[in-house]
Predict the structure.
Amino acid sequence: MPEYERWSEARTNAIIAEHAGEPGATLPILHALQEVFGHVPVEAEPLVAAALNLSRAEVHGIVTFYHDFRRHAPGRHVLRLCRAEACQAAGGEALATEVRRRHGIDWHATTPDGALTLEPVFCLGLCACAPAAMLDGEVLGRLDEATLDEALECVA
Amino acid sequence: MSRLRLYLPADAAAIAVGADRVAAALRAAGAARGIAIDLVRTGTRGMVWLEPLLEAESAEGRIGFGPMRPADAEGVLAAILDGGTHAKALGPVVQIPFLREQTRLVFARCGITNPLSPEDYAAHGGWKGLARAKSLGAAATVEEIVASGLRGRGGAGFPTGIKWRTAAAAVGSPKYIVCNADEGDSGTFADRMVMEGDPFLLIEGMTIAGFAVGASQGYIYIRSEYPHAVAAMREAIRIAAREGALDGFALEVRVGAGAYVCGEETSLLDSLEGKRGMVRAKPPLPAIQGLWGKPTVINNVISLASVPWIMAEGAGAYRGFGLGRSRGTMPVQLAGNVRHGGLYECAFGVTLGELVQRVGGGTASGRPVRAVQVGGPLGAYFPPALFDTPFDYEAFAARDGLIGHGGVVVFDDTVDMARQARFAMEFCGLESCGKCTPCRIGSVRGVEVIDRLLAGVRPEAQRELLADLCHTMKYGSLCALGGFTPYPVMSALTHFPEDFVPRAGARMAAE
């Protein structure tokens, strides 16, 4: 289970400083921030902007362009369920419907107890063992309701 | 303590179906028998339906067991050591028809070697292509790639050698080699398999490209959905640099952030530069003004991974495979509802029907095949009536389709083709970079039109409108996202009109 740090300006600036010298540093910085904080806090945007000589609007535009970057901290566990065609062909949509029903959450939402965040993903390259998902970074294939339940119970 | 060497893939697909748990069970079963298991974690052979596929040395070469479950470890180990049989025994792996019938040029080592062993790589023919390129010289290397007939395997099919020639002749310094490893098409995993299973191959291909066009810096842009590939490539680059194999060529992995459109080459370049992944108008071509405005070769993983074989064996040998203007081999990826899912590398020319029915074994569900989508989310849906189409860039184009990156997603007769068409439009809307109107607005309008059609609101008019909208998107979009979304939509409408009829309970999109 990933443990995220509380946001702090000092930590953010330290992360930015690690990457700011790289050409095209924006994405490496945003990835590093999300790895530490679980999301890219809005408070970080002006700090990134200042370090990279960008406007705050530009940084906001970049953060919101990419599906990966979360604006809020996720639940304790993140399930990324594939919604692309190969998984659709193998029953992925029915599985997703069941997950949403059972946990009472829609895409991008977190259960009220903060245990699980459900995110869509469009292809994990596990298309020959569909349907597939990623749970806290661990890949899962040939899923059905039973095997997915088992995986969720393992991390719970 | 005696030792036993076994081979088990560490490919993400094998891990997803339990390879790591099988590895632990094997070690435990070995310990119980007083045997140390020397488990080599390879890439995958690409027979994903047999994963986790365990292999052991024998007098007949490597013999396979799969698909393995942790509970099989003890029995399989007994079969290997005591010479008995086991229900999961597959015999010599290279004799499995799916593998035996392939022409493995790019995937020759994948599944056999330890991906991160430079000794394995060299012992299995690695670095020969780079050595021959060096002996021929830069200009002759470019011409060798031109002569091979290699075309971009990412989907566009543009001749790789022409890109190289243009970048080599372009004025500007530094020059860059960018590898497009943003393999976003559903149904494709060939790039991932190379990066995880034979990363030095991609490194060698990029180093040759750098030598050929005079570039000293390379970037590999890998999608974030591929953490195993990111880790394997970073480690392989570190090892190759330590071994002095890169000859001063600097290589770096950059990770995408979930934007499908960044698989489009100019959008990828903007993303590498740290911006939103917005598509650029062409010209200028990236080969002339690419990354940070400098001459840039941007090629797909499989294109670059084909280069070492071409350089080692010669352009003529490569041209000997394939037909027409599609030369060499293509890694076809069979996915979705298919019995024998996996990667099948073969010369161009095999028909779609052979791939789906004979190689793939039909559907996994056992129901009849109703449609296959070839070439990812932007590729057309083909009905069985068109299964005589040979796998060839021009033959697919002639039937209003594309081979794209070689993904074949199989659907059985439970598929709702109107829903697939709607999804194509929805996906385009979700992933549009927003720069051009036909894609940004057209995709949203497309969803609405299909919803109205299914809700029975003047369905004939909606059908006409959908065709008109697709025409606008196809010819008016800046890149393949908006430009090719009409392929799945129109192919579904054309080949499966019976699914596009008003239905009870259909709701219209919000007006």
